[in-house]
Amino acid sequence: MGIEANILKISKQQGDIESFGTHEVPDVLQEISFSRVVEAMNLLDCNNDRIHRVLFSLLDNVRPSWYRAARENGLHFSDGAQQAHISCHIGILQENNPDQRRKIDREHVRDEAIFPLIRLGIIERVFHDSGEFLSGHLRANSGSNCYRLTQTFIRVLQANAEDLRSKLEEWSGMDNEIQRAIMSADALSASTERIGSPHANLIQDIVEIYVPNFLLGFQVVYIDVGDGTRVTDGDTRCLADAGLGIERGDAFPDVLLWNPETDELWVIEAVVSDGEVDFHKVQRMNSYCERYGKSGVNYTTVYEDWTKCGRRQNRHRNIHPSSYLWIRNDPSKHFLCE
């Protein structure tokens, strides 16, 4: 889709076209010029025009937010912008050249600029929710997932010309990097607690509704609410009580259960964006079960509703035969897939 069509589509979804403002970008945003951005990034060995333009777009505190609710709350583009918003800002507002405006590849913007700047601690992930922006991408593949510059880096860019190099060196120091990581983790934790992660909510319903009603005698020995969270000492002790362990390369499910009487395991995958019980998952967990001499293992894939289940399976059809299916919004039954 051309960039003009893309911005028109966004405007229809999230507000009137006038809200996007004129096709002009001030020479200076937040007391920072484009040349200052280039200078700073060159000092960080990031001499890439796409990076420079992504940074400058996220300094735009003149243009109102492209989310209607956020705009009505007085927020601006710089408070949080989608990947598509950033591409539009570059293609239409900055590169006001007919030859360049026709297409700005959003994948390139993401891979060549946004992700490297996230790794450097210059950009942070945020989530639009009811007119405000919360830390982290709280839902997979959501149109509310956005990006903004960190305040610490904005302050570096605002430094006097003679202080820029020293400010950059101070900002990029190891101690400061650790502090940025801690602050980011704390902010994400607070946001997740407030809005709730759909994945975590689904796992909670598995433990509180599905297991007590359908898997009598099974005990939860491991929960991965963090989608890849590191196994803690507490997890290790619970696994050991069930006669289980963990080795390098093990890929645990969202929920792992054990039946003390039958010595069986039960594997549950909570699917919000992907991750069904497929052939690969069954193969790996069967090997895990055999390693520890368990009597058997069963499997369940869980979806939030039938719509999400249908959408995923219409495309992938990857649920393994002889595994079970449970739908949270239709909780009174579960289905054996044969």
Give a verbal description of the structure:
By secondary structure, the protein is of the alpha+beta class. It folds into 2 domains: 3-190, Arc Repressor Mutant, subunit A (Orthogonal Bundle); 198-336, BsuBI/PstI restriction endonuclease, C-terminal domain (Trna Endonuclease, Chain: A, domain 1, 3-Layer(aba) Sandwich). The chain has helices at residues 3-14, 34-43, 49-57, 68-72, 83-94, 98-101, 106-119, 151-157, 164-171, 174-195, 198-214, 233-241, 279-291, 306-315; strands spanning 28-29, 32-33, 123-129, 132-135, 145-149, 219-223, 255-259, 264-271, 296-303, 324-327, 330-336. A hairpin with a 4-residue loop joins strand 7 and strand 8 (264-271). Helix 1 (3-14) packs across helix 5, helix 3 crosses helix 7 and helix 8 (151-157) packs antiparallel against helix 9. The two termini are 41 Å apart.
CATH fold group of the largest domain: Arc Repressor Mutant, subunit A
- With strands numbered from the N-terminus, the spatial order across the biggest sheet is 6-7-8-9-10-11
**Total count of domains:** 2
CATH class of the largest domain: Mainly Alpha
User: Which stretches are poorly predicted, pLDDT < 50 over at least 5 residues?
Assistant: 1-8, 10-21
Sheet of most strands:
6 strands, mixed
